[in-house]
Amino acid sequence: MLKELVIASHNQGKINEFKQMLEPLGVKIYSASELNLPDVEETGTTFKENAALKAEALSQISGKPCLADDSGLCVDALGGRPGVYSARYAPNRDFDKAMIMLINELKDSGSDDWSAHFSCVLALKEPDRPTRFYEGKVEGRITADRKGSNGFGFDPVFIPQGYERTFAEMSSEEKQNLSHRGKAVAAFLQKEFNA
Ligand code: IMP
């Protein structure tokens, strides 16, 4: 059973979420910044590759088990873009601009099928063990009508399948029950902690 875990991220929001979930299970959580670990460049072309790159590099440097996640939005009419480049799609991380750009791209595509999904891959690397992966996906569609102020990134333009509200109109609990990241984390907790 894992007793300590480095979260391969400098994003305090992500680290807090993992702390909330894992500390009650008796796991000591370290952030990459706390251990002065470097940023790892996401040079892969898939979520799995990027998550593995981050977990493996930081586990090797720290000598500790390390968990990394990579996620993004894949839009069918755009051939799956922005995909692994979702974070970099936003100019200066300005997601208001990014959402306008995305809607314009969809309008220009001429397609009226605005289906999309979010994907998330978690990679867990323990020293001397092969990397293990947990994945989650949520299907839905993009709406031109931006709504809601919760969440982050593309949440105000993404409506999950079976709903008429965007992720940004949902509480964090409701979103986590449906979301790509929520599903990947649930699979990780089930397998690693029987939780
Ligand atoms: P990462 O931190 O490299 O995994 O970047 C993920 C990027 O994908 C974010 O910057 C957002 O653009 C997008 N993304 C991933 N998950 C979500 C989500 O739950 N809601 C909205 N946008 C997301």
List the helices and strands and how they pair.
Layout: E1 4-7, H1 12-22, E2 28-31, H2 47-62, E3 66-75, H3 86-89, H4 95-109, E4 115-125, E5 132-142, E6 158-160, H5 172-178, H6 180-193
Parallel strand pairs: 1-2, 1-3
Antiparallel strand pairs: 3-4, 4-5, 5-6
Helix pairs in contact: 5-6
The structure holds inosinic acid.
Inosinic acid binds at residues 70-73, 86-87, 118, 151-155, 167, 179, 181.
In round numbers, the mean pLDDT is 94
Number of strands: 6
Widest beta sheet: strand line-up: 2-1-3-4-5-6
Question: Helix/strand/pairing class, anyone?
Answer: alpha/beta
- In whole angstroms, how far apart are the ends? 12 Å
**Could you name the CATH class?**
Alpha Beta
Count of DSSP H/I helices: 6
Compact overview of the structure:
With 195 residues, the protein is α/β, with parallel strands linked by helices. The chain has helices at 12-22, 47-62, 86-89, 95-109, 172-178, 180-193; strands at residues 4-7, 28-31, 66-75, 115-125, 132-142, 158-160.
